[in-house]
Amino acid sequence: MQKDNAADLTLSEDLILVDQKVSSKEEIIQKLGDLLTEGGFVKDTYTKAVLDRESVYPTGLAARVTGVAVPHTDTEHVNRSAVAVATLTDPVIFNGMGAPKTEIPVHVVMMLAIHDKTQVIPILRKVILIIEKDEVLKKIWEARDSGTIKEVMQEHIRSVKL
Amino acid sequence: MKKVKIIVVCGSGVAMAMHAAYKLREHLENNKIYNTFIEGTGNNNLAACIDAYDMVVSNAEVTIETDKPIFSAIPLITGVGEEELVAQIVEKVKEIGNAE
Question: How large is the ipTM?
Answer without folding.
Answer: 0.89
